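Hypothesis: this fold can be encoded by more than one sequence.
Test: take the structure tokens below, design a sequence, compare later.
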């Protein structure tokens, strides 16, 4: 019963984590538009597997992290730098959009692109740590030994479901691939800049 309960809440957290437009879901949509639905599904699967690992790590070390606040602080400091770099990269790509024909491919396989994209989102670990700790405090989640597997499998299912929504809706998001590329890159550049500023404020002014 504990496993099922944690599976449910893990699914909720996983879906919420990818519901808001961001690097992972926008990438899945772009891969779908360029290479087809199956490529988008593989990209989503790769990203969801990384989310599974991140959720398991976060929940598995919840007690350790709660007693070693400096670890989370260091993660957030690294995240600020990564967010700033990504903001500059996507802004540069938006200023110089490449003209591509429909069906043009990204380097590498869609699955590995999903893995790499989700791997860059290191804030998933603090997200699952803080969320699971909050739910545990409310007696909605149970973080006993091995119970973290339920959260991890739930996060995998929830994030995969959310990403597949983006994949199957990708065709209706934009009609022209080049305009979607540019708009998405501007959006992601602004998003990562905002995230960097918010993390900076949270670290040094709260």
């Amino acid at each position: 019963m504990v496993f099922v309960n944690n599976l449910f809440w893990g699914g909720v957290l996983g879906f919420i984590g990818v519901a808001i437009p961001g690097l992972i879901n926008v990438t899945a949509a772009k891969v779908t538009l360029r290479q087809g639905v199956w490529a988008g599904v593989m990209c989503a699967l790769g990203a969801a597997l990384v989310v599974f690992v991140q959720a398991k790590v976060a929940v598995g070390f919840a007690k350790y992290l709660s007693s070693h606040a400096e670890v989370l602080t260091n993660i957030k400091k690294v995240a600020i730098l990564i967010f700033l770099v990504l903001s500059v990269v996507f802004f540069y790509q938006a200023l110089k959009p490449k003209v591509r024909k429909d069906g043009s491919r990204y380097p590498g396989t869609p699955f590995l692109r999903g893995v790499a994209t989700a791997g860059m989102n290191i804030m998933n670990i603090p997200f699952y740590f803080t969320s699971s700790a909050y739910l545990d405090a409310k007696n909605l989640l149970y973080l006993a030994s091995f119970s973290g597997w339920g959260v991890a499998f739930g996060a995998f299912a929830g994030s995969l479901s959310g990403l597949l929504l983006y994949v199957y809706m990708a065709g209706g998001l934009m009609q022209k691939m080049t305009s979607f590329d540019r708009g998405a890159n501007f959006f992601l550049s602004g998003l990562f800049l905002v995230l960097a500023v918010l993390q900076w404020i949270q670290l040094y002014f709260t």
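The chain has a mean pLDDT of 79. The CA atoms of residues 86 and 192 lie 7 Å apart.
Hypothesis status: open.
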